[in-house]
């Protein structure tokens, strides 16, 4: 079953066209990695899928689980099961992680006509997912990402993903700012949460190192706004040794 189908996608930021005919298909149970040089359009693709304002789709289509993703508002995309992990998670002073996550989860459950979680049930779920990412529960009582290191922000975001339990995750350079131990923990967390037959992952990264833990089914090279070549996990290793020019020329 196809979870995400992107066909001939064109998108602009301001007056500049960034995506220039990008096509991609991700099936259920699959992890696809997108790699490419700076300025290729990787983060733009993530923001377009998430519905970030200022990123205008000028042509093409995106179908998510059989529905027109581009017709949905950002909160509707989230409720439909799409999760966007940011390269630089933002800080939200004055709002605790626990409060933020419970509100986010219950907002999505309400949109799906599901029963809301009580405070006790939510804390039980939060402890389980925090343990998975080796994040102390005391961290979740603090304001969202305030005073967190880069690695703590990424682990907290993966806890968020675990709690929301999306059908599909778009992870934009989740390995950015992670040391070796945190990289392993985050990679194992992604596998535990998303490596399931009814889920899918689009993993955007510059480097092979995260792919040692989250092994992709397919690797795509994005250059100048479109996919220029695709292959198996061996393609990522080739890029690591030869660089992008060898395959994106």
Automatic annotation (TrEMBL):
Family, similarity comment: Belongs to the ABC transporter superfamily. Ycf16 family.
Residues of the ABC transporter domain: 4-249
Gene: sufC
Name of the protein this chain belongs to: ABC transporter ATP-binding protein
Keywords linked to the UniProt accession: ATP-binding, Nucleotide-binding
Pfam families per UniProt: ABC_tran
InterPro entries: ABC_transporter-like_ATP-bd (IPR003439), FeS-cluster_ATPase_SufC (IPR010230), P-loop_NTPase (IPR027417)
UniProt-recorded Gene Ontology molecular function terms: ATP binding
Record-linked Gene3D superfamilies: P-loop containing nucleotide triphosphate hydrolases
Stored CDD domains: ABC_FeS_Assembly (cd03217)
């Amino acid at each position: 079953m196809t979870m995400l189908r992107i066909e001939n996608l064109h998108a602009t930021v301001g007056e500049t066209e960034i995506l220039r005919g990008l096509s991609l298909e991700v099936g259920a149970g699959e992890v696809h990695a997108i790699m490419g040089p700076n300025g290729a359009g990787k983060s733009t693709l993530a923001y377009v899928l998430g519905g970030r304002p200022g990123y205008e789709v000028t042509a093409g289509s995106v179908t998510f689980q059989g529905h027109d993703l581009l017709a949905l508002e950002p909160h509707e995309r989230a409720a439909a099961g799409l999760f966007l992990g940011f390269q630089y998670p933002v800080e939200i002073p004055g709002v605790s992680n626990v409060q933020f996550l419970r509100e986010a989860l219950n907002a999505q459950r309400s949109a799906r006509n599901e029963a809301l979680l009580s405070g006790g049930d939510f804390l039980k779920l939060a402890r389980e997912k925090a343990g998975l990412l080796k994040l102390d529960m005391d961290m979740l009582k603090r304001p969202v990402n305030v005073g967190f290191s880069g690695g703590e922000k990424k682990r907290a975001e993966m806890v968020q993903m675990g709690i929301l339990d999306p059908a599909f995750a778009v992870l934009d350079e989740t390995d950015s700012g992670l040391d070796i131990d945190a990289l392993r923990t985050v990679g194992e967390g992604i596998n535990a949460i998303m490596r399931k037959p009814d889920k899918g992952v689009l993993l955007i990264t510059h480097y092979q190192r995260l792919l040692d833990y989250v092994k992709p089914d397919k690797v795509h090279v994005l250059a100048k706004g479109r996919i220029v070549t695709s292959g198996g996990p061996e393609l990522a290793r080739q890029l690591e040794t030869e660089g992008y020019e060898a395959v994106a020329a």
